[in-house]
Specification:
Strand content: 35-45%
Mean pLDDT: 94
Shape: globular
Number of domains: 2
Number of helices: 10
Number of strands: 21
Distance between the termini: 37 Å
Helix content: 25-40%
């Protein structure tokens, strides 16, 4: 087993090394720029790390070997029309649009001149030239997060083509969100992309960032390796959406690492409807009292999909609260994983921590692995967790059929309502409407 693993890592690192050498050769005299050193340090670290296997506790339910065995290329631009692009937007949602097609920024489809007052966006390359912002970035990438053995974070830093820093001004409430729209159009080659964001909510500000993932071809095979670093300063509130509608053959690994200062709020909203193998690592560290953290996740797995959600909340200081709600539906040969850990440290008195995971498993061949964890070292706390796995209620089906619905119609309505309990927590009605519509569409294709 170890020999196979080492051979696999060796082959993977060979094409990684070749790809990075090609990047360095194309710098054209820009090797002295901070971004080059930023990437090179990540690459050097990546070369010393092994990719996780199922023998690693944090990855025991998810085999990443099919992902890393591919020798990926970078994506190339596509002539996606405005009408084709618009179908992936949320109708009625006024947002700043950042269009990333096949991993490449499409300035024609983007609306970067519509940035609202109080919100600033720049590339990571430009941000690293600013001493103060560079220090914030360095502090964020030094955060370990909740998942051990995570070479995918270093891979993202080494290969991200379009990294962005979003910073709010102090004391502003920005209603207009930034929407990063990632679209795959390629089917003839297997490529990877590395979306990267540094989100900094300055003191007493509030704003929203949305990342959504789509494909124009449901058969396309590609790998999206995402990294988000979030800093929420005193009394700020950051709303962060990750909406995944990838092709049925796509791979996606997401890392979102947040740190929160006193009296701040971080709200993470997650949806997984697509993808062949999906792994989400979400972690938050409380660094000041009065912090609130909210995780809302919904997933729908059919065919042979694999959707793994790993969450970690570190209650390191007193008088903080966290609330997690994840709900999903699995059928056919799909497999779901929820591994949620809440750590309450000894000094974190007066902590309130709540965690709930509920799943419907609707076939004999579908699997759900649920592992909620509470690790508590303080004595004056209120903490609870729960995991339920069940099937559709037959009495509810009978009742709906008695009101004129077909058997399939009744089941679809109940599944939509089950997932909808999470989706209705979302802030923007156009997102709620589209997600629930896509849930119904996916269920109708079973």
């Amino acid at each position: 087993m170890s020999i196979i693993s080492k051979d696999r890592d060796s082959n993977t690192k060979e094409w990684i090394k070749t790809l990075f050498q090609a990047y360095e050769a194309g710098l054209n005299g820009q090797s002295n720029q901070p971004i080059a050193a930023f990437k090179k340090s990540a690459f050097d670290q990546l070369m010393t790390e092994d990719f996780p296997t199922r023998r690693d506790e944090d990855w025991k339910y998810t085999n990443v070997a099919p992902i890393i065995k591919e020798a990926y290329k970078f994506g190339s631009p596509s002539d996606l029309s405005q009408n084709e692009f618009d179908q992936f937007l949320f109708e009625g949602l006024d947002a700043v649009i950042v269009a990333i097609v096949n991993g490449v920024l499409d300035e024609g489809l983007s609306k970067l001149d519509k940035m609202p007052s109080g919100l600033n966006m720049m590339t990571v390359a430009d941000a690293l030239k600013n001493e103060a912002i560079s220090a914030k970035i360095q502090n964020l990438i030094d955060q370990k997060g909740g998942t051990d053995k995570n070479a995918f974070l270093r891979m993202n830093r080494a290969f991200a083509q379009h990294g962005y820093v979003i910073i709010s001004d102090k004391n502003v409430q920005v209603e207009k969100p930034i929407h990063f729209v990632h679209i795959n159009t390629r089917t003839e080659e297997t490529y990877f992309s590395h979306p990267q964001m540094f989100i900094i909510g300055s003191t007493s500000s509030e704003f929203s960032v949305i990342e959504s993932y789509h494909s124009t071809n449901n058969e396309a095979k590609y790998f999206t390796n995402t990294a988000n670093y979030i800093q929420v300063e005193d009394n700020a509130h950051v709303h962060h959406y990750r909406l995944q509608f990838e092709s049925k053959n796509a791979y996606q690994i997401t890392n979102s690492i947040a740190i929160q200062s006193r009296d701040s709020i971080y709200s993470n909203y997650s949806v997984d409807l697509g993808g062949r193998i999906v792994r989400n690592n979400i972690s938050t560290e409380h660094m000041g009292p009065g912090v609130n953290t909210y995780y809302y996740g919904a997933y729908l797995g059919l065919d042979n999909q694999h959707i793994d959600n790993q969450t970690f909340i570190d209650h390191a200081v007193p008088h903080c609260e966290s609330n997690e709600m994840y709900k999903g539906v699995l059928s056919d040969k799909a497999r779901g994983v929820f591994n949620g850990k809440v750590l309450v440290r000894q000094d974190a008195q007066k902590t309130n921590a709540y965690q709930q995971n509920a799943s419907l498993v609707l076939s004999d061949t579908a699997i759900m692995d649920a592992k909620p964890q509470l690790e508590i070292y303080a004595d004056d706390v209120k903490c609870s967790h729960g995991a339920t796995i069940g099937q559709l209620d037959q009495e509810s089906i009978f009742y709906l059929k008695s009101r004129g619905l077909s058997d399939e119609g009744a089941k679809t309505l109940l599944q939509k309502a089950f997932i909808g309990e999470v989706v209705l927590k979302f802030k923007f009605q156009p997102i709620i409407d589209k997600v629930l519509s896509m849930v119904v569409t996916k269920l109708s294709k079973k």
